[in-house]
Amino acid sequence: MLAVFEKSVAKSPEALRSPQTESVTAFKDGSLAKHFASVHSGSVTVNLGPAGVMAYSLDKQNPLLPRLFAVVDDIFCLFQGHIANVALLKQQYGLNKTANEAIIIIEAYRTLRDRGPYPADQVVRDFQGKFAFILYDSASKVTFLAGDADGNVPFFWGIDSEGHLVISDDVEVVKKGCGNSFAPFPKGCFFTSSGGLSSFEHPMNELKPVPRVDSSGQVCGATFKVDAEAKKETTMPRVGSAANWSENY
């Protein structure tokens, strides 16, 4: 799976940028999506207009960590993996028996956006299993992505030379679009357009970027570690039924 988001929709953490990155761009003319299609047979590309592009393929997928794609009311979701407590989540969100993990993620997000009964970190923490997902809400212009606490699903993100965010389960595709400005997506974390990167395991703590050095000694983006000493000044407020979570986070 692949997503490239324009920098106004998803502002990449500046710590991902490597000074050794070549001048490459993932967004212009859909170049990275075209490359993705060339290396993954049967790929489907979804054009999000000026906001970006998403693409997915069932090529070479792990049968234990299948890829899914769903769209509901202009909310797009790419999902890879398996959620163990699907039955409980379907009941919690009032979904029918045929709903898959991608639909559950969309409904969980929509509940956060429209009613916000729980903090976002609690909602993601309730997903038990091996997973990574990328969601885009075209109405609110919001991105929402997360990976499980153990990093069971290959999931990488990066920043291209123009500051656009790139996310994929294919590390070579991310390298193609971002050069050295990439890293594995942090375990146990989620990212939103307005809130940036947070840990759903330690939501009260700040995340500290640590430069990542590869085997050849080159700096390649950054990893993010929970800072046990630094507490966040504020947490996401709970909002009323008339409020929009995506504007309050």
Which features characterize this protein?
249 residues; Glutamine Phosphoribosylpyrophosphate, subunit 1, domain 1; 6-stranded antiparallel β-sheet
Describe the overall structure.
By secondary structure, the protein is an alpha+beta fold. The protein has a single domain (2-248), classed as 4-Layer Sandwich (Glutamine Phosphoribosylpyrophosphate, subunit 1, domain 1). It has six helices and 14 strands. The strands form three sheets. It has a six-stranded antiparallel β-sheet, covered by helices on one side. It has a six-stranded antiparallel β-sheet with strand order 4-5-6-7-11-12, covered by helices on one side. A hairpin with a 3-residue loop joins strand 11 (189-192) and strand 12. Helix 2 (86-93) runs parallel beside helix 3. Residues 234-246 have low confidence and may be disordered.
